[in-house]
Amino acid sequence: MTSRKLVIVGDSSFAEVAYEYFTHDSDYEVVAFAVENKYLRQSSLCGLPVVAFEDLPEKYPPTEHEVYVAIVYTQLNRLRTRLMEQARAFGYGLASYVSSRAFVWRNVAMGEHCFIFEDNTVQPFVQMGNNVVLWSGNHIGHHSRIADNCFISSHVVISGHCEIGANCFLGVNATLSNNIRVGEDVILGAGALLRKDAEADRIYTGVPAEPARISARRYHKVR
């Protein structure tokens, strides 16, 4: 099988992890890493060159390469989203990864630029937007919908018929009961239990989860 050439944007731990998965569990060949020029601190990573993101189209033409932006939930996912959109504007196709050790039912609808780690269970009729990360070990219940630019950490339980708004972050071991609606820009803290709908731009913690006074966008310095 002919491999597809891929550039990973980022040089953090997530970038290294993404390199491992794309290299050993996909038909992509990672050929380089890229970061914005002002953050360029090293010339190589995992034995591959690290180049300025601004120079990508010249060094790695979009006619021959695809891009995945391996950035976590910085600025409530805005940084990953901005770089993804810039890569698209450069003309790149946006790669996705679905672990061979994840269970994703046949009729799950998934957008572009998604990353699904091992041990995720994604049940029938789930819909996921673009630029969604499911770290390892989550349960995404049937008929649930996850909007664009969300980051679901590990061992999160999203029960059936839930709706997660755009740009949300769900912490480790968080749980959502059935039929829950979560607004945009919500942070659900580690171990939180959400039994009722969550308002947009709020931080929820505790069992049962209750909103904090500070807004999620203000906490993450999102303008």
Summarize the structure in short.
This protein is an alpha/beta fold. Helices cover 15% and strands 32% of the residues.
Structural account:
The protein is α/β, with parallel strands linked by helices and 223 residues long. The protein folds into two domains: 92 residues, Rossmann fold (3-Layer(aba) Sandwich); 105 residues, 3 Solenoid (UDP N-Acetylglucosamine Acyltransferase, domain 1). The chain is built from four helices and 25 strands. Strands 7-10-13-16-19-22-24-25 form an eight-stranded mixed β-sheet. Strands 3-4-2-1-5-6 form a six-stranded mixed β-sheet. A six-stranded parallel β-sheet has the order 8-11-14-17-20-23, with no helix packed on it. The longest helix has 13 residues. The protein is globular, with a radius of gyration of 18 Å.
Mind describing the biggest β-sheet? 8 strands, mixed
* Mean pLDDT value: 97
Please give the domain count: 2
Q: Main sheet: which strands, in order across?
A: 7-10-13-16-19-22-24-25
